[in-house]
Amino acid sequence: MKPKIFVTDATFPEIIDYLSQSLEVEHNQSDQPYSEIELINKLHDKAGVFAHSTRRFSAELFAACHQLRAVCNMAVGYNNIDVEAASAAGVMVTNTPDVLNETTADFGWALMMAAARRVTESEHFLRAGRWTRWRFDDFLGVDVHGSTLGIIGMGRIGQAIARRAAGFNMSVVYHNRSRLTPALETAANHARYLSLEECLRTADHIILALPYSAQSHHLIGKAQLAMMKPTATLVNIARGGIVDDAALITALESGTIAAAGIDVFENEPSFNPAFLSLSNVVLTPHIGSASTSTRLAMAYCAADNLIAAMTGKRPPNLLNPEYL
Known about the structure:
The protein is an alpha/beta fold. The protein is 34% helix and 14% strand.
């Protein structure tokens, strides 16, 4: 008998077919929202879950789902899962690293350049029919080429962002929990390690690419934003909650920093509506990895993790090896 698994949200049809070759699949291709109680009811007889990062897996859920052996997240981040509780319940947890590094790095650059050059603001101006003549001072932004890029979080995505800076003749500074090896710093466009405060004060453009944790919650708040240059931009492609969104809105309103590009929000998909009144922020709905090829690769990666877990193998991207 095939192990029973549940796919929490709509995904590519070929992924359902792929999983069905090895597993008994119940899916949610209608994309129905579930409360935690409803999700627990769905999982009461399931051994595994193919999960999206929007679904939360709490200690209460793990305590209630006694047959569950694996939760395989289709994301790099896994702050939606209580990994400690999963381990205590004997449940494997996996993610999908590496496959989205380059696409997410591309998008970080897209947001940075759009914020620096006021692309969203100027497009709205044009679409509203307000462009009636050329002016020398229309939508003056800040340069990207020849400036200093600051990266906070120098993992695989951060390093991919840094490599792109070479083409813009940029200097790269970074802050990370631990310093990279000299070889990795050289490969990342000769990136220079700084403290968080030095990085914020030095950079013309800051991109956040670090994981969310209790330690990184509101890492960028009022005090940190005040350290940045008034001409600087801030881009968040990491996770909501790393930036204090209310403090960022105040900083953008007051001119503490010039502009921002935000792909992730506190409490998303809800977000602070005050963002919508700002002209100097580019807003996108958590689409950093949203290319067809990358999202499909992420889905296959999550599926391979789940198939391995359900067939007695070690999943390639196991986050809690202490389970074994």
